[in-house]
Amino acid sequence: MRKAAASAVLLVLFSGCSLVSSPAYVYRSVPASAAIVSGFIQRGAASWYGRQFHGRPTASGETYDMNDMTCAHRTLPFGTVLLVTNLDNGLSATVRVNDRGPYISGRIIDLSRGAASVLGIISTGTAQVELKAVGNE
């Protein structure tokens, strides 16, 4: 009986011990699967965000740089590369999804200031665009 009790105590004591510790949670960009975004096309309103978010973390954990060619999309996997075409002037830019948004109803994408500049929407603030998935990082 004593042996069984000692074994039970040792079992309880050592059950919490582990040679491998649990890793801390790490934010990282998860590459998009080509199968997930293959053939993705979307049309709608785009806007841009800049200085007020510059240097802050994005939803993917990256630091937002308003001059990079990045964007926020509600559902596409982080790392998805999109060809964005401004339907008002025909200008195009390639951007990478690294954030979530936009949070304003009726908009489909939030562009970095750098991307908005290439697309010619800095002064207007918004534009009608077409998004086409062209790959992943």
How would the blueprint of this fold be written?
Blueprint: H1 2-15, H2 34-37, E1 41-49, E2 70-72, E3 80-86, E4 92-99, E5 107-112, H3 113-119, E6 126-136
Parallel strand pairs: 1-5, 2-4
Antiparallel strand pairs: 1-6, 2-5, 3-4, 3-6
- Fourth CATH level, the homologous superfamily: RlpA-like domain
State the end-to-end distance: 62 Å
Biggest sheet, spatial arrangement of strands: 1-5-2-4-3-6
Radius of gyration from the alpha-carbon trace, in angstroms? 23 Å
By secondary-structure content and strand pairing, the structural class works out as alpha/beta
| Low-pLDDT ranges | 20-30
Remind me, CATH topology?
Answer: Barwin-like endoglucanases
Q: Mean pLDDT, rounded to whole units?
A: 84
Topology pattern, helix = H, strand = E: HHEEEEEHE
Query: Can you give the helix content as a percent range?
Result: 10-25%
Largest sheet, strands/sense/barrel: 6 strands, mixed, barrel
Specify the CATH class: Mainly Beta
- Using DSSP, what is the number of strands? 6
- Percent of residues in beta strands? 25-35%
Provide the number of structural domains.
Answer: 1
Could you say what the CATH architecture is? Beta Barrel
Shape: globular
Number of helices: 3
